[in-house]
Amino acid sequence: MISLHLPALQVVVPLISAPLCVLLRRGFGAWLLATVIAWTAFAISLALLAQVLSDGALSYKMGGWAAPWGIEYRIDRLNAFMLVIVAGIGALVMPCAYHSVAREIAPERQHLFYAAFMLALTGLLGIVITGDVFNLYVFLEITSLASYTLVALGADRRALRASFQYLVLGTIGATFILIGIGLLYMVTGTLNMADLAARIPALQELRPVRAAFAFIVVGAGLKLALFPLHLWLPNAYTYAPSVVSAFLAATATKVGVYVLMRFIFTVFGARFAFEMMPLGEILMVLGLLAVMVGSLVAVFQTNVKRMLAYSSIAQIGYMALGISFASVNGLVAGIVHLFNHAAMKGALFLALACVFYRLGSVELDAMRGLGRRMPLTMATFVAAGMSLVGVPLTVGFISKWYLVVAAIESGLWPVAVIVLVASLLALVYIWRVVEVAYFREPDGDAPEVTEAPAAMLVPTMALAAACIYFGIDTELTVGVATEAALSLLEGGP
Amino acid sequence: MSAATVLLLAPLTPLAGAVLMWLSRRRPNVREAVTLATAVVLFGLVASLYPEVAAGGRPKTEFGELLPGLVLAFEVEPLGMLFALVSSFLWIVTSLYSIGYMRGNNEAHQTRFYIYFALALAATVGIAFAANLLTLFVFYEALTIATYPLVAHHGTEEARAGGRTYLGILLGTSIGFFLLAVIVTWNVAGTLEFSPGGILAGKAPPWLVGVLLALYVFGIGKAAVMPFHRWLPAAMVAPVPVSALLHAVAVVKAGVFSVVKVVVYVFGLDLLAASPSPEWLVYVAGFTVIAASLIALRQNNLKLLLAYSTVSQLSYVILAAGLLSPLALVGAVLHIGAHALGKITLFFAAGSIYTAAHKTEVSQLDGIGRRMPWTMGAFAIGALSMIGLPPTAGFVSKWYMLLGALQVGNMVAVAIIIVSTLLNAAYFLPIVYAAFFKPEANPPAEPGPAHGRGRVALHGEGGDAPPPIVIALTVTATLTVLLFLFPGAALELAGQLVEKTR
Predict the structure, then answer these.
(1) Which residues on neighbouring strands pair with residue B62, listed in sequence order?
(2) Cut 0.90: pTM above it
(3) Cβ-based contacts of B68 with chain A (< 8 Å)
(4) Residue A340 placed within a domain
(5) Domain that holds residue A373
(6) Residue A95: inside a domain, yes or no?
(7) Which residues fall within 8 angstroms of residue A320, CB to CB, at 6 or more apart?
(8) Is ipTM > 0.85 here?
(9) Residue B231 with chain A: CB contacts under 8 Å
(10) What is the total count of domains within chain A?
(11) Pairing of strands B70-75, A58-61
């Protein structure tokens, strides 16, 4: 019985927990509830993925109302995979949150933090699971508003400014998406993705449809921080509380990429997007610029969190590039990188959360000799960092392999070269940290620090282990990504 | 034990050794016993494969599938056998030497040193046994990363800068060119399997063959073909055992080994011979041979001189492979072994001089042969092998290379080999002469530097280095001569390689 309603529970369970967190009024109680809920959501997402892998796509009518009037949740391989990524990162971040939040956020605000965190999780899961474009917009706003709050809770006063910047640009993005959806509704009279997909091909010559496409691509571009719409991201990630950076970096932008893919391939269809509209060229140019500029700027940062933020912009560029080929291998690269990047960035930001917990700083200078003082944390950082560079037997290598294969297949040698050169830039910025942590002696007055508490360390190491495990055993990730890519290219949800 | 099991155990042995070394980190004696034992076990495993390979067998095993169609697998063929034998045997000798050197110089972070050394050897064995380009690439990258902590070992500004250059060039070339070449090969040929006769024949247009060859030769930066050779001199900031085993044998030979393997098993000699301009490879390698020798001629630091000499000697192998003649290929294979023995002897000698007399510059070596007869005797043998004179192994390999060059009538290659021989003589013989025949400039009046702990107690003033060091360099020098007298096994393996490819 309950298994029939898993799609609804996936969203409703974290949603209900948010007000409960507020009612609990105690940091510890709220944390405990949020952790239990996050793991429950993870379990639900795994069950859904198993169900989809064995029975194919499933459809769920919210409240029993049929599609054109009610809201349909539609789960195929792509969003089942995304649900696992989002819920999995949420579940791994929560155990770390207790210590990290206790250190970074005032006690009277801690329960509010967990409430906002649950709302953000709800929103992300909702965006991914829904098959209704207006519902998608609603969840997008839920997650955005919750994220602005989470960023603003950062200990540094500059977090407020970062949050405001994020709010302004995020709102513009959401508004663009809403305008796009409105135009589509005007022309087609439906908000259901499947119905939209059926009606758009006949109407694709109409100007409102094209305008809707443009609005939605730009809006989604803002949400996923596609260069040059990334300006909100570096400050937001740098000044947000450590666990928030980890959670948002690993999930929020990925969900943005998912939204873009969903609209391009499912709603509008690959033919419209790549043949009638010049989306392929645009995404390729912007993706390449993101990869180069993001990596280059990352090289010159002295705050490691900010460095990783710029690295995220570059990595998002890889995903955009993967989409731009509109080929199976390109899409596999994009989809598999959603997972891979979530694992490695999650591990890197959580490792920084551990560092911040002990040192109170993530400046490069403060990390001198840390390899000796926090060996496990730094080993995790190195493992995930290697993955970012794309060393073989890590997940990064798999993403890069597909991306380069896709580029060569399309005869785009220069693109292949740029992808590889950019991974060398990743080597440069990761290695700056490695060198400082392992081959520099700390100052005389450096505080004596020890390893971070186990509750923080274990999830961090689990994510880094995932970076290596899924770099060797790629059956699940590449298998799901390949089937998802094939069904996206065929069109239809 | 089946050959497949041995194949898997070989790279796992140093890994297990590394764990044991970490566990015994508080007890240096146990830790170093573990190092030696691991090295002996590894050599035993590798050597146990020899009879089967020499009889024409090709033991193989598969141990993972990274992506559909892309497997990780080992397969031993003659070239890999030779490379694995040489590296694993020299690891035993180097372990012995390391004990003397690291203790004699009171080096810090010794556990880290031994652990990464073991990891580097695991990667080396993986490269030697790789059955396809993907496996080769995986272990190639692993070797770079495992050796980085050894290069940056001292943690000084100089060591960190050296480490940056090392990692930057090696990973830069491998990711920028090598990986690209591998992916293009996969795209064109649909397989990455090493197979006699190559996998690209009939699948790649001539222009692509040329591009791929360039991507491979420059992408395999460990072969140190100019202009991607800077990492090797930069790596000289490492402790001497690292320079000796890794930067004269394991890492650099992994480079030329990979190039030869790609030439033989990915392109195939016939395909290259038929492609429009394989000549350039000979010129590029020839240029490196001569230019590196000229630079070596101007070095005063002994280790840097040896490093540039290595750059030059490595390109002999590339040049010989580029001649695409069977005899030259035999020379190339032999030179992998011959240069390994000779150069490790020279590095051992350099480290011995540093440990016992604290001298690093060529100009300080006047008369040192009388104080350190074993060390400088071994140095002389190593130097002869570099020049390619009898009775050393270098003569045999150079002989075959010259024969190969004459066989295909490439007079440019002949000239390069001869000029380079003269240059080698010009920078090695004066050192040997000065060490034995010039008077010592300022003989030490009091016991040597304080940190010669074991040495001062054992040998007193003016003696040779500690026994482990002397034993190690004597063994490698002896082997250099023995390989000249009995090149049978190496020739057998090289002969098989050539036979199977035509």
Answers:
(1) B73
(2) no
(3) 478
(4) yes
(5) 278-493
(6) no
(7) A226, A257, A283, A284, A286, A287, A290, A334
(8) no
(9) none
(10) 1
(11) unpaired
